[in-house]
Amino acid sequence: MTFDIVKVRADFPILTREVNGKPLVYLDNGASAQKPQVVIDAITQAYSHEYSNVHRGLHYLSNLATEKYEAVRGTIARFLGVSDERQIVMNSGTTEGINTVAYGWAMPRMEAGDEIILSVMEHHANIVPWHFLRERLGVKLVWVDVDANGDLDPDKVLGAITDRTRLIAVTHLSNVLGTVVDVKSICDGARERGVPVLVDGSQAAVHMPVNVEEIGCDFYAITGHKLYGPSGSGAIYIHRDRMAEMQPFMGGGDMIREVSKDAVTYNDPPMKFEAGTPGIVQMIGLGVALDYMMGLGMENIAAHERHLRDYARDRLDGLNWLNVQGRSVGKAAIFSFTLEGAAHAHDISTILDKKGVAVRAGQHCTGPLMEHLGLAATCRASFGLYNTTEEVDALVDALELCHKLLA
Ligand code: PLP
Questions:
Q1: Most Cβ neighbours (<10 Å): which of 49, 205, 312, 348?
Q2: What keywords appear on the UniProt entry (predicted)?
Q3: Phi, psi of 22 (to 5 degrees)
Q4: Is 365 a catalytic site residue?
Q5: Cα 175 to ligand 1 centre (Å)
Q6: What is the pLDDT of residues 136-145, one digit of tens each?
Q7: If we measure between CA atoms, which residue out of 88, 68, 41 comes closest to residue 284?
Q8: What does pLDDT average to over the chain?
Q9: Model confidence over 179-205: pLDDT tens digits?
């Protein structure tokens, strides 16, 4: 199937609106993506005609909602190339997924002096849960830098392994630099040394085909709102061997089999790790979003975004007063930049907004990366499957205005 961008854009109703009297140019997909009509319709349909709590009732609607909700587990497994869907834990997003691993797998098995290897370009969601272990258990965080292009050398990550290394936690795709990390090489080397690997797939799964069984990781976290699905939806793949080692992180309904005054027995995995009423309709919406992406074809999406990346890279390189961070050759269409001089990222994004161009300004939840780059903040234009080269032109026009006003 060819990628028909006009048809794709027509699937996203919000893209027809104006902002500040200008057509919306939405380049904040790294923060959260817009939703296609099929997802919006699925949410309306679920609440209008098919809503009930799941796993609990014997009545018609509860069975229907359970069926729809549980089918999403299979969709996520298919999307991530996982052959056994019981290795998918459904949740509210990457933050919950990584915390589930930190509390349920890492905390019970780590002690003072154990080490966790992190890259310097991790999102706070893949940093702060490990700081909890540092603060509470005395675990040491070992940081691996990226090079001047923003590339992460897998050998440098593997070279940081010692006999105290208990986990490598690394992003698959940087939300700031756009760098795609060779997580397969990291996993291959780590496996030989008996070190599990957690991959933060929050950004990668949006932009490229992902097959976690080929990657060979132990944990792979995704978050629904960046995948054109509802906020409050997500999942984490947990290899069955790691799952067997895990303790439940949150306790409550659904994750138990029996509870008495003196004892509790747990449900089978993955439900053992899904406490309480889940985001039922959010997850149903996520299933539809993933089907939508797979319908377009992940290879087609990736090819379209490579075209956008190349076009944007050329046009932004033409602005000799713009400093783009991250020069990895195979990067995704994510561009973080500063303007030469003292212009603040917030001022730049405010001017862009006046032109209808939505970008993000700030630290992007990556304090250690900003420290590494020696920057207080950047602006970030992050592209998605519905963006166009005309929108790159609109960004460049708006940046030229910024340069005129702020230089
Ligand atoms: N990891 C990366 C690389 C991200 O870009 C984000 C979101 O910005 C997260 C983790 C956290 O995702 P969420 O806030 O949906 O849990």
A1: 205
A2: Pyridoxal phosphate, Transferase
A3: -125, 150
A4: yes
A5: 8
A6: 999 999 999 9
A7: 68
A8: 97
A9: 999 999 999 999 999 999 999 999 999
